[in-house]
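Supplementary Methods, section 5.1.

A reviewer requested that the exact input to the structure prediction be made available. We therefore reproduce it here, unchanged from the version used in the analyses.
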Amino acid sequence: MLAKVPAAAHDEVRDAYWAIFGTEDLAAAGIGPGQELLTAVQARIDGFAQAYGKLYPAAVKCLLTDREQLTSYLRFPLEHHKRIRHSNFIERTFGETRRRVKVIGRFPGETSCLNLVWAVLDRASRGWRGVNTTKAGLRLLHDLRRQLLDPPTPIHRTSHPDAEPEQTVAAIA
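The structure derived from this sequence is encoded token-by-token as follows.
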């Protein structure tokens, strides 16, 4: 993004950019990881876009295009945010995953691939310096893993056998 901003404005834009993703004040206000935190940070991104959109449209377009990927870490425990929001951790983890996949060659299914990636991330998280995982954080991580492996089944509306064609089970209930 800074490549699309004049050098004289780098410091100002960089500081404003990192202020978007600082969640300490939101956590102090009682906002925990999940959709509420994601909504608050998305509002900050919109504010950044309003402030700098006319001055640096290409940089703001870059930010708005990647907003989903930039905020995906907000679902994880708060104590992990500073560590996983940077790409160094992600790139190192991808490298470790690639190294392990070369040995395996081919996976028998999607679940085995997810299990390998989970194992790499789990092992990497043990080596984090300065990051403590609380019981609530571990619970959240396990819930996220469960959502990835066993996503909820979508509810499909079906017609009731005795109902008229335009009536559905939802309408009868």
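Confidence is low (pLDDT under 50) at residues 167-173. These observations are discussed further in the main text.
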